């Protein structure tokens, strides 16, 4: 029973989490594409419209890297160092940090008040 539990844990870590991340980012990409087609002149920039902040919830650098790489199946932007390093090391991928500069999530922006927001 212990061996089965460890196998299940490794399977969950190596397969389930990354396929979930890849699937969710794919569904997000389809939704973003739909709304861009309805409201924008082009799909320009679509590969950078959904940014991965999954490293905040990852338990290790390895899981942050795996989740980030799964997200990069559908999008091209990341600033997660573990993802960039793993992509270059294991896949020889020319992964670069986000081309539009540092991207902030709502938690990192929430610490500033409205008066300081422009300088954040």
From TrEMBL:
The keyword Transferase applies. Keywords: Glycosyltransferase, Pyridine nucleotide biosynthesis, Transferase. It is an enzyme of class 2 (transferase). Its EC number is 2.4.2.12. Residues 48-83 form the Nicotinate/nicotinamide phosphoribosyltransferase domain. InterPro entries: Aldolase_TIM, N/Namide_PRibTrfase, Nicotinamide_PRibTrfase, Nicotinate_pribotase-like_C. Pathway: Cofactor biosynthesis; NAD(+) biosynthesis; nicotinamide D-ribonucleotide from 5-phospho-alpha-D-ribose 1-diphosphate and nicotinamide: step 1/1. This is Nicotinamide phosphoribosyltransferase. Belongs to the NAPRTase family. It comes from Microbulbifer echini.
